[in-house]
Amino acid sequence: MQLTPDQKDTLTELVNIGFSRAAASLSELTGNRIVLGVPEVSIHQMHELTRLLESLACSSFATVHQVFKGTISGDAVLLLHPEGAVRLVNLVSNLPVKPDDRLDESSREVLAEVGNILLSACLGVFGNMLNVRVSFSVPHVEFDAMDTMLQTLTVDSEELHYALVLKTVFQLCNSTIQGHIIIVLGVSSLDRLLEAVAQLYKEPIAGFDKSK
Asked: How many domains, in total, are found in the chain?
């Protein structure tokens, strides 16, 4: 499945609104200006996700994973290279974490909070668009091999699932860190989301400019 140009542009703008809100929250939390780059948005069937992740040339990942429920439901994951996760924690919190260290409990709490702010902001935009509340599980931080990480996604085999992939860059303190957000949706949730996107393109909401 491929997104149409209109769907891709609209989703990109929506996610960018969420990113702007998340960046503002993170900047306020840390006292440092944080910018999230305009996301690259793509959609993939679940069986294509392994190949996509293999292209990142990383055998393991640091993840912040949340399950969300509501009119749309699924899994949301912030995906970082382990070294990028350590750098992000260092820059956000000034905690003394060495590049080759596993994150201790305090550092994991920082990463979980960053992931929670980012994932909640993105999914909150979708919830507002659909005029529904979306509830979230407690965020979980893991350092896993790629196969193990994929197995943690709660995919119901009775329904075809897709992965909405959002690629972005954290910019803070003259440093950049690449990250991905993966939102796993069943086909029924994806249909609801794309129907709302189509309506939004016809009748843009405040803060959304379809001419961009």
From this structure: 1
Residue 133 lies in a domain: yes
Question: Is residue 209 one of the residues assigned to a domain?
Answer: no
Task: Report pTM.
Answer: 0.86
On whether residue 16 sits in a domain, the answer given is: yes
What is the amino acid identity at position 77?
Answer: V
**Using one digit for the tens of pLDDT, what is the confidence trace for 106-141?**
889 999 999 999 999 998 888 887 777 788 899 999
Q: Which domain holds residue 155?
A: 5-202
User: How many other C-beta atoms can be found within 10 angstroms of the C-beta atom of residue 24?
Assistant: 14
The Cα–Cα gap between 87 and 94 comes to 10
Under a CB-based contact definition with an 8 Å cutoff, are residues 180 and 166 in contact? yes
Q: Please identify which residue in the block is written with the tokens 């201790």.
A: 104
CATH number for 50: 3.40.1550.10
- pLDDT (tens digit, 9 = 90+) per residue, 43-59? 998 888 888 887 776 77
* Residues β-bridged to residue 40: 167
